[in-house]
Amino acid sequence: MPIHQPQQRSSGSSERPGVPQAEAALVEHYPRLVRLAYLVLPPALGRHRRVLAAHASVQRALPGVRTAPEAPAPARVPAQTRGGARPPAPDDGVASAYAWMRLRVLRTALAHERRPRWWPGRLPAPASLRPALPAVWGLRLFPRAGGVAELALDQELSGVPAAVRAAFALRLLEDLDEPAAQALLARADARDPASAVRAARRLGAGDRAGAEALLRSGEFDPCVLQTRPSDLLRRRHRMRVVAGVAALCVVAGGVIALAEEGSAVRLPDSRDVRGALAPALDPAALLRTAAEEWADTSRVDFTAWPARGDRTDDRALLGRALRAWGRTPRDTAVSTTPGTLPAPPAQPPRLLYAGEVDGAAVVLLHDGGVRVVRYAEPLSGPGAPALDFARTDGADVTTGAAVVVSRSGNRARFLLAPWISQTTTRDLLRPNTPARALKVGADGVTAAVDRPSPGGGCDSWPALQLRSSARIVEKHAFLVTDLGDLNPVHLTFTPKPGGGAPARQPREATSGPALLSWARTACSLGALRGTGVRAVNNWDFAEQRLPEGGAPAQWVCTRADTWQGPGRVLVQFLGPDPSPTAPGTVVGDARDTALCSRFGQHVLGGTHWRAPSGQWYVLAAGSRAVSRIEAAGAVRDAAAGTTLAVRASRNASVQLTARLREGGSLTAVR
Questions:
Q1: Chain centroid offset of residue 565 CA
Q2: Structural contact between residues 358 and 445, judged by C-beta atoms closer than 8 angstroms
Q3: % of the chain beyond a pLDDT of 70
Q4: What's the whole-model pTM score?
Q5: Of 574, 477, 582, the residue nearest 519 (C-alpha)
Q6: Interior CA angle at 369 toward 306 and 341, to 5°?
Q7: In 118-181, where do the E strands start and end?
Q8: Using CB atoms within 10 A as the burial measure, which of 106, 412, 428, 550 is most buried?
Q9: First-to-last C-alpha distance (Å) of the chain
């Protein structure tokens, strides 16, 4: 899977960026910076305190108006990256701001392990005692548990100093060469950077690609967390003690207040809170993008959308939408994409659309980095307003191409991005039927189109086929489909590699083979409806000649990536069938996994299959790196290569495993 990388790969920037550039870098690369801080922080903090300290280190890195500039970088520091890549242009503000923020995060994280000489050795370093937000009461937070390999790497990292962990992370996650990593560590006040870089070479057992995949796994991701309650009995005891102390303080404070004339302290009430939100909820403060800015920016996402619709100047409507967002009334129906917080905006949002669609006044707003919010109220008659929240962080040309503006029954209208130059519709279950043109209004709203039926039937699967404008040098067609959230889902396809060819990358699902693959698997998308999916890729990872005739069958791994990050895979078996749209059989389902992605490139699937003769078989197939498949349990057999077929009863319990050419093993997805 293609992963966005920061453009800046040099060791650091000596120039203090402006607050807007630093904020843009923070929003765009927040998970990356938090992961870096988490890896550098001392494991002795415990995973809960380490998670909070990582987020605090990144959030405190944002410069203030009084932040002092960094010292200039030494002239001897090389400016090139590993491989001789040219450094970014001097006017690349966000990239240089990212490098500056990364330096500050490193410096803060390294300080947690550094004690002054006079500091008692058993106490934590002063930096770890510093109060900071975020703070969590009553819950323990920790990243998702990994496997044996992740645990081994975590134990290996816990046995080395923070500077070595930092060097290891900079080399693998930030892709810095050794001189650049050493220079950055020196600027971050690390002890003996040269020794740290040398020691980092020995981590990860010499497998750079494997170690990088482990570092990017959920075990080291402090942005994807699990929660557990803290010690409830101890917490209850502490609360009683705190309540008693607070009561004494209230009594003492009352006595002092009576003794001192004219002194009064007022706690903030709800009106003060509303007053703090007032600037962000003022219709006059809404951000509006110029109509043609999308064609002259390198950030092609929702921040490039202009305000459209015939009610963009209706202050009363905009005010109601903002007030509903800031203080959701009881009569307002609220829906959220999984992982999206329905919190009020912290700053004035951007207006994307305000107009009338299908008997409702609709307002679309974007909060600048993470969410798109849709407000709708009926134009007449009974009915309550509705407020919908959806995640959009990291949106791009395809995942930021459309938003649902109205749904009515089994039909929907979309507001299209300004860079969409051609709009058609097609049915994924009819791959040989040409796409049909779709009318789009001057305000960017499409005519009503069919949407996949939310019921159990699957007679058709509508999708939009969009083409981006040549003005952004992204002129290509791509498919999106409605899975019940505000943002339609981007569909892609990865074909099998040819003989001796390297592994292929996902591509747009508009070719003949891609459409044929989706024709047999589109109905499986129903299981992903309403789960916050961002993109779905079909990977034809194996082809198998079946016993008793040798007819070919396809094995497909359908991977759904969510806006939150975790993915879900469905392994599907496409047996021979005279119908090109015969649905495949889902034989494996795994959640919260890296399988079938850039960081999980090996997969094994298995199923029972009945031959035309009536004989049952156990079939198995693996991806290109599989060298041997073994069956154990009710039947025992093995086969070299990427496929296996063995006779077995219909309900035979069989355990399937595979060996990889470069070492290691796999179990079948179930």
A1: 3
A2: no
A3: 79
A4: 0.62
A5: 582
A6: 120
A7: 139-143
A8: 106
A9: 23
> Could you tell me which residues are beta bridge partners of residue 239?
none
- For residue range 200-236, list pLDDT tens digits in order: 888 865 667 777 877 887 778 888 776 666 544 445 5
The pair of structure tokens assigned to 573 is: 């078996």
> Is 180:197 a contact under the CB 8 Å cutoff?
no
Euclidean distance between CA atoms 604 and 66, whole angstroms: 56
Work out the widest C-alpha separation in the chain, in whole angstroms.
99
Pairing assessment for the beta strands 333-336 and 386-391 based on DSSP bridges:
parallel
Following CA atoms 311, 316, 319, 323 in sequence, which dihedral angle do they give, to the nearest 10 degrees? Answer: -120
Q: List the structure tokens of 437.
A: 């043109």
Residue holding tokens 């890896």?
A: 39
Gap between the Cα atoms of 227 and 220, Å rounded:
15
Who contacts 436 (Cβ-Cβ below 8 Å, separation ≥6)?
424, 425, 426
Q: Is residue 95 helix, strand or coil?
A: helix
Cα–Cα distance measured from residue 632 to residue 627, given in angstroms and rounded to the nearest whole number: 17
CA-nearest of 309, 317, 385 to 354 is: 309
pLDDT, tens only, 420-479: 999 999 999 999 999 999 999 999 999 999 988 876 678 999 999 999 998 887 778 999
Segment 355-379 mean pLDDT: 93
As a whole number of angstroms, the distance between CA 451 and CA 412 comes to 6
Q: Strand runs (DSSP E) across 188-291, as ranges?
A: 225-229
> Could you say which DSSP state residue 289 is in?
B
Residue 539's SS3 state is strand
As given in the structure block, the two tokens for residue 20 are 């807007």
Q: Which residue has the tokens 């690349």?
A: 92
User: The dihedral of CA 7, 11, 15, 16: what is its sign?
Assistant: positive
Q: Is the dihedral of CA 285, 287, 291, 297 positive or negative?
A: positive
Instruction: Give the integer Cα–Cα distance in Å for 432 and 293.
Output: 38
> Which H or E run contains 245?
helix 232-259
Residue found by looking up tokens 């293609």 in the block: 2
CB 348 within 8 A of CB 287: yes
Of residues 129, 188, 128, the one with CA closest to residue 163: 188
Amino acid identity, position 337: T
- Least confident interval from 45-49, 627-631, 646-650: 45-49
Is the pLDDT at 75 greater than 80? The verdict is: no
Length of the chain: 670
Contact 350, 305 (CB under 8 A): yes
- Provide the token pair at 348: 């004035």
